[in-house]
Amino acid sequence: MNIFICVMVFIFGLIFGSFYNVVGYRVPKKESIVFPSSNCPNCKHKLKFYENIPLLSYIFLGGKCKCCKKRISIIYPFFEALTGVLFLICYLVFGLTPSFASSIIIVSVLIIITISDIRYYIIPDEVLIIGSILLIISYVVTCFINKTSFVDGVLFKILSGLGSFALLYLIKVLCDFLFKKESLGGGDIKLLFFIGLSIGFDMSIVTIFMSSFIALPLSIYNLIKKDTNILPFGPYLAISTLIILFTKLDINTIYNFFIS
Question: What is the mean pLDDT of residues 59-63?
Fold first, then answer.
C-alpha cells in the first residue's frame, strides 16, 4: 500500500465532497453551482478561502459561521469526510486501474443523489444523466485498455441498466395499484438504471431487497413516531450499491451461500 497515494486520494475525496455538497444542494433548486460563491446559509456571508477548506475549516471554526456565529450543519463536513473515505476505499479495493475510475464515478453520483434526496426528496435527472454518460465512457476506455469485448464491457451493462429501470417501474405500477397511492418516486426508478449500469441487472435486484431491509427500522420508527412511513429511498439504494461494489458480491456467491 502506498501511503502517499492513499493520503492524496483521501484529500481529493474531501475536495470533491465539498463540491458535491454544493451540487446536491443547488441543482435540485435549479441554481447555478458556480454563482454565487459559497456562503453562510444564515447570513449569506461569503466564505473566504480559509473558511472553505474541506473538513478543516469546520473544525477550526468550531462548527459556526465566523460572521453571525450561527451553527453550521454537520451535514457539510460529514459528506466531505464520507467522500474522502469512499474515494480511499475505491483505491484500496481496485488500485490504480480503470475500475478505480469507474468506482469513483459511481461513488460521486451516489453521494450527490443522497445529499439531494435527504434534503429535498429529489434525485436530479442531470446528475444521473451526466453520471451515466461518464460511466459508459469509462467502460469504453476500459475495453480499449484491456482489449476486451465491447459487447460484454459496454453494451451488456447498458442493457442491465435498462432492465433494472424496467423492473422497478413495473414494481411501482403494481404497488401503486395495490396500495392506491404512489409507492416509489420517479427518481428512484431512474436511479435503478444507473445502479444496473454500475453493478449489473442481477445485483440491482439484490439492492432493492437489501435497501428495503436497511430502511425498514427507520420506516417503522417514522410510522410510530411521525405517523408516516415516507422517507427518501435513494440513500438506502446507494448504501446497498456501495456494499455490493466494494465487496464484489455477485449472484453466484449469494446462491452458494443459501444452498450450502
Answer: 84
Asked if pLDDT for residue 45 goes beyond 80, the answer is no
Distance of alpha carbon 204 from alpha carbon 192, whole angstroms: 7
CA-angle at 24, arms to 21 and 28, nearest 5°: 150
Kindly state the greatest CA–CA separation across the chain. 62
* Per-residue model confidence as pLDDT tens digits over 185-200: 788 999 999 999 999 9
Give strand pairing partners of 39.
46
Q: Which of 152, 172, 150 is nearest to 160 (CA)?
A: 152
Q: Are 188 and 211 in contact (CB under 8 A)?
A: no
Is 122 in contact with 155 (CB distance < 8 Å)? Answer: no
Q: Which amino acid is at 62?
A: G
What are the start-end ranges of the H helices in the chain?
Answer: 3-26, 56-60, 75-94, 98-120, 125-146, 150, 156-179, 186-199, 201-225, 234-247, 251-259
Mean pLDDT, the chain, whole residue set: 89
pLDDT greater than 70 at residue 83: yes
C-alpha cell at 94: 481496485
CA 200 to chain centre: 16
Contacts for 39 with CB less than 8 Å, ≥ 6 apart: 45, 46, 47
**Beta-bridge mates of residue 64:** 71
Output the pLDDT for position 204. 94
- Confidence band of 41 (pLDDT split at 50, 70, 90): confident
**46: β partners:** 39
